[in-house]
Specification:
This protein is an alpha/beta fold and about 525 residues long. Among the domains are: about 15-35 and about 45-205, Rossmann fold (3-Layer(aba) Sandwich); about 355-435, Luciferase, Domain 3 (Luciferase, domain 3); about 435-530, ANL, C-terminal domain (GMP Synthetase, Chain A, domain 3, 2-Layer Sandwich). Helices cover about 30% and strands about 25% of the residues. The strands form 7 sheets. The chain has a 5-stranded parallel β-sheet with strand order 4-3-5-6-7. Strands 16-21-20-18-17 form a 5-stranded antiparallel β-sheet. Helix 11 (about 285-290) crosses helix 12 (about 315-325). It is globular. The protein starts with 12 loop residues before the first helix and ends with a helix.
Amino acid sequence: MPGMRPDLSGVDPLVANLTHRVCIGDLPTRAAHQFGDRIAIVDGGVALSYSELEARSNAIARGMAARGHERGDAVALQLQNRWEFAVAFFACAKLGVVAMPINLALSADDIAYQLTDSGVTAVFTEDGFVPVLEAALDSAPHAAVRAVYRVGGNEPVGGLDTVAFGDLAGAETSPVEVVVEDRDVLHCLYTSGTTSRPKGVVTSHVAVQIGVLTTAVTAGLRPDVVPPVQPIVLPLFHVTALDVVLLPTLVVGGTAVLLRGFDAAEVVGVFATHAVTNIALLPMMWAAILREPGLEHADTDSLRTGFYAMAPMPASLLTALRERFPNAAIILGSGQTETTPVSEMQWPGHQGVKDDSWGPAVPTTDIAIMGSDGRLLGAGQEGEIVYRTPQLMEGYWNNRDANTAAFAGGWFHGGDIGYLDEDGVVWFTDRAKDIVKSGGENVSSVEVERVLLAHDRVGEAAVVGLPDERWGEAVTAIVVAVGEGDDALAEDIREFARGRLAGFKVPKKVVFVPALPKTATGKIQKHRLR
């Protein structure tokens, strides 16, 4: 039997959808009603109010609809952190069109793969990325791309129908009203693909909406007379900037200050001109902020929460940040693209107590530890961290085998190793693929890295296992030195580690490099180091 269901046969299906649905495209519509002339986005000399954000998103959506885009289509966004990204993203959401942001650091070959695999029919781009897009299109003869929407000009790209961004906008700015279901896909975000071709993570409107509200709750964001202000330096093509920073800021009527990339002086300048309340940075960015001379004269008293992610934070840096920003909680948030993405977040009360943890699960997520035999383990027992959450992706696009493996045993497998303590706080050991197996012992690369980063001559560090006849894998530290790296410094670093680590965890070798290879979002590419 179908159970208790209301009879809506006398209600227009579109009306039923509009009055009940979860659609991220409705976010700017509601925000325009609630916040009106309040500034939503600052992008250099452009300041868009919520009303303007809504009007421009509707205009682009209507222009896209007039050119044949409809629910279920997919469109790529090859754009920097600029107001056009937000407008194009919301326009897609309003139509039920899947947005596929492109990592701006990708090669033409990588872009060609994603264009072909995703089946996108159009690309939003800007003048600076036209050469790599044309090269990608040349390498993707089977791609379905038929149009390019270009910020900055209207010269044809790749022989395709090319329209200037401004010319795409329709004259009508009222909301587009079409059916969009809760479980329709909002965006497709490709993983970094460190060991194989990247996987397309497809995530629904409802999963992102729950993730956005969860982040707002756990980060203390709320509508108020004085709205939150959040600079965004992480790239919007990445799930953190998009789903954890931009959308939660907008859902509560805050102001997002978009920066094209990270420049310490520029970020400090935002502190000087805006009452910044929240900011998310990588640890190396936080360190650069502290070194910036202009910080001494910037008013930072309004900062309430400083987030960091994607890399360990040295204890000395955490202490320095908390001293410089005494009104702010400096805390870690963790997650994956597949979990939209904040799964764990430290509470402010964990500062100085559980700094090295990931924090407890966010309220909408259930986290467990699974053994290799599929059993769930108790507190203190190490295994794979697994998830159940309505924030979870629908699955990987065009990848049946990856989906079968990801959902094995009734939980989502993220590939991380760790344990839960008695308080339900998650402690991360390492990525399963980054565990070093040395002399029959498992060594957490993260644990060793955290120790090395406490050395005053270590600027950055990554630990990998390299083949070794005696040990199987030799714990190897790859270090960006402060000053010149030489044999004496290498031995001093190893001696420093001996006093803080078990003997089998001490690096067998220290290698100095001028820089560590990283993704566009700051993650160290250990496969390249190996």
